Amino acid sequence: MNNTQTLLLENDLLQVRILPAFGGKITSLRSLRTGEEFLLSPLRDYRRASASADFSESDGGGVDECLPSVAECDSIAGEPPVPDHGDLWRIMWDIDSDDTAVVLHADAVTRPLRLTRRATLEGSSLILEYDLGRVHTNGELRR
Predict the structure, then answer these.
(1) What's the number of CA atoms in the CB half-sphere (13 Å) around residue 139?
(2) CA gap 17, 109 in Å, rounded
(3) How many Å apart are CA 52 and CA 84, to the nearest integer?
(4) I want to staple 108 with a disulfide (CB 3.0 to 4.6 A). Which of 42, 83, 113, 138 is the partner?
């Protein structure tokens, strides 16, 4: 996968664009009937964010996933601190898509968590289904 790969979901009513390389970001949700865009366009060019980047350094548009926290958190109970808006908006997501959906997953950096998101279109609705699992040190995923 490259940094510019865009995944597309489309039916007669909606078009959705997703960037796996930029945190699985949903960059566009557009009506094919009217052409109206429902999401904020990026305020800056898409670029890789460092592990310590503040969310204000992001592109500022679309939909980002914030896991394990939307706020920056100090280290607790021996766990590392959580950066602003969590880990997932700043990392590349893996593609698990099937014929009917765009399915992506990513493993958090600061916690042993894997988030899987399945995106489908049903009429004029974008359906996002989430699965959160715990990744153990041996790489096994528990739900």
Answers:
(1) 0
(2) 25
(3) 8
(4) 113
- Structure token digits, residue 98: 């099937």
Residue 38: strand, helix, or coil: coil
Domain locations along the chain: 7-142
CB 121 within 8 Å of CB 127: yes
Amino acid at 98: D
Please enumerate, as own/partner, the contacts of 32-39 that have beta carbons within 8 Å and a separation of 24 or more: 39/63
Q: What is the pTM of this model?
A: 0.85
Sequence-distant contacts of 36-42: CB under 8 A, at least 24 apart = 39/63
User: Element (H or E) spanning 84, and its range?
Assistant: none
Architecture of domain 7-142 in this structure = Distorted Sandwich (2.70)
Inter-CA distances, 31 with 51, 123, 125, Å: 35, 11, 10
Q: What is the pLDDT along the chain (143 residues), one digit of tens a residue?
A: 456 799 999 999 999 999 999 999 999 999 999 999 999 888 887 777 776 677 777 777 899 998 888 777 888 888 888 887 888 988 999 999 888 899 999 999 999 999 999 999 999 999 999 999 998 776 666 66
d(CA 48, CA 8) in angstroms, rounded, equals: 21
